[in-house]
Design brief:
- 8% of the residues lie in helices and 64% in strands.
- The chain is mainly beta.
- The longest helix is centred in the N-terminal third of the chain and has 17 residues.
Amino acid sequence: MRLRLSCIGVLLMLGLSAFAVTYDSQGATTEQSVQTRLGVSFSKKWDNGLKLSLSEHVRFSLYDTKTGMSAKQVAIDTTYAAAFTKSYTTLSLSYAHPEFPYLKGDAGYTLRLLGNKGWSDPSKFLRHRVFFGLTGSYKMRYAKIYLRERFLCDIRTDSINALERNAATWLLRSRIGSDFYIFSRPNVKPYVWLEVENTLNAPEYMQKDGQQFINHVRTQVGVKWRVSKRSSFDFYYRFTYGYNRDINITKKKGKIELTEETMYQNLFGISYNFEW
């Protein structure tokens, strides 16, 4: 009986080893870029606290360089010229009860258009995003401080390997910020915020030390300038630190090729906002 159990155990171990996947040598790349973002938004606010918004933002790369070595031992040293990179079309709805203006909920949908995936297959250059969140704020004499927690789900419809990436990627963005009041210039409102983005369902082989990880840290400073009762402009600068783990599982060798991708992005933006 013991001999039979031992034989069964050996067979099981051999069977599992046939499907085992091991990590290949890691690669690392670094990308640095300067981008500009142009946007326009329209919103309608009702007295009951509902607000409906439609916005369009387009992003262009002014300078982009990528260096390093991929896990496939391929040297990367490229520089890209100015080009369209992506656009965001967003429809959102928010609500804050008139008696509790310090607490606001919002939800929406974003259609993302990627400019570096070619234009032959819509499933490659189109991405879908749904989001919902809650914002709490506290108003003081010279400033309003707020904290926002937002869940996002990025959805792709192209063919993927589920072991390497998700068809639906869940993320959590935590933002803390402040708007400042200048009483001598009530139509000018400086602001600053800091945001941390964390993965929620990264595949097992993509996880860092077996855990989910922070993949973006963003900070933005800007000023909102109201030129009339309904129209305003937003001028801002944003710095983004990004970290990603690109996974490729080879079929023949049963190995995981892992490339750690680091990104530093400087973005200058302007948007026009119309409210009625």
